[in-house]
Amino acid sequence: xxxxxxxxxxxxxxxxxxxxxxxxxxxxxxxxxxxxxxxxxxxxxxxxxxxxxxxxxxxxxxxxxxxxxxxxxxxxxxxxxxxxxxxxxxxxxxxxxxxxxxxxxxxxxxxxxxxxxxxxxxxxxxxxxxxxxxxxxxxxxxxxxxxxxxxxxxxxxxxxxxxxxxxxxxxxxxxxxxxxxxxxxxxxxxxxxxxxxxxxxxxxxxxxxxxxxxxxxxxxxxxxxxxxxxxxxxxxxxxxxxxxxxxxxxxxxxx
Amino acid sequence: xxxxxxxxxxxxxxxxxxxxxxxxxxxxxxxxxxxxxxxxxxxxxxxxxxxxxxxxxxxxxxxxxxxxxxxxxxxxxxxxxxxxxxxxxxxxxxxxxxxxxxxxxxxxxxxxxxxxxxxxxxxxxxxxxxxxxxxxxxxxxxxxxxxxxxxxxxxxxxxxxxxxxxxxxxxxxxxxxxxxxxxxxxxxxxxxxxxxxxxxxxxxxxxxxxxxxxxxxxxxxxxxxxx
Lengths: 255, 227
What we know:
- Chain A has 255 residues and is an all-alpha fold.
- Chain A has helices at 3-28, 34-41, 43-52, 56-77, 82-100, 103-111, 119-148, 150-155, 160-182, 187-201, 205-230, 234-251.
- Chain B is built from 7 helices and 9 strands; from the N terminus they run E-E-E-H-E-E-H-H-H-E-H-E-H-E-E-H.
- In chain B, strand 8 (189-194) and strand 9 (196-201) form a beta hairpin.
């Protein structure tokens, strides 16, 4: 096993776990597809980063921040649902991405390049994953409460606006990490599939987020081993591994 | 009397529409204030404004340091979250002992702790919600339509529970309801709302004229005694 592959594997495991954790929150907020849309918002940034020779994380993260800011402004100016506004920003980003990014870079941005992880990249991914995890853990109870009822959360003294901003920033950082592993087309799957699978088989909140994290980790780990073994692209293998777990969960479905 | 809340000239405008206007009333400690009114009269908006989660003009003066708790009308999204009753309480950072005690005081045993919130009947869920709002020991309970979706037997017991709790804990309760029988039985004051106050006072003073004005139709009150 080469060092390079080991770097990718460890980085994938951390990012998969944090994607599963955040995904469990996004599903209860009925925002499961937002991860998918944001993956596309990251596309032009990733292309630019590849052209300029900087880490794609930074390009992706910058465009995600911009995208989230735009959604937030549109939200304040209209009464359209957030989901629809994310839709507008996402297709526009996609169009810009296709226009400004040359084809080889575009392919890499769409499907990710797992073998492009350096030692610095690994350290960065691991630290940032842990950081996102800790931040999300701090707001988790409050977010669940706000997802059940915004008024209830407010009456408990939770600053829901501030909490939401922290939540969105965490998603942006997680998606920017995720696009490096599975690419912008498939990053949404890292968020959705472990969470829906966990939802199927868990009877409590604790089981729900733990299973979601474990499935995120396992999908990335096993998917990458499959990649090593078959030489098919890693991104799709990771997602198909996650999908396999989802199908198995239907057999053990609790609710 | 010990005043808990004073509202003066309250006005709420949402999306350019005046929802509440020129509202003034007072709540004393131990009062059970019933808020009556047709759909769209702004009852829920009044509760939310009193919780200071909506913008308003005028004066809302809570007694300083008063602990309030809100019980919403429905929580349709709670079934999206797999969660035991205990975990629902734990969102509030309370001890297991406190959860057990609270569950007993709302007429559910501690065996309810491990139940999934989504599996509770609407009556049980309403009790869990009341318990959830009581566990932080509030002095004031703001209650939005406590019996929506509960059958008659269940309604009676939710109200007798409220009556019992208000006495035991010296609670002040603000209660949005459609149920006039309950107003006569339980409330010490009532407020009829249709954007403006159309009546305010003791439930015994409520008459047919005021109610038909409030609901915009002919109303018959069936007064009956409860032993």
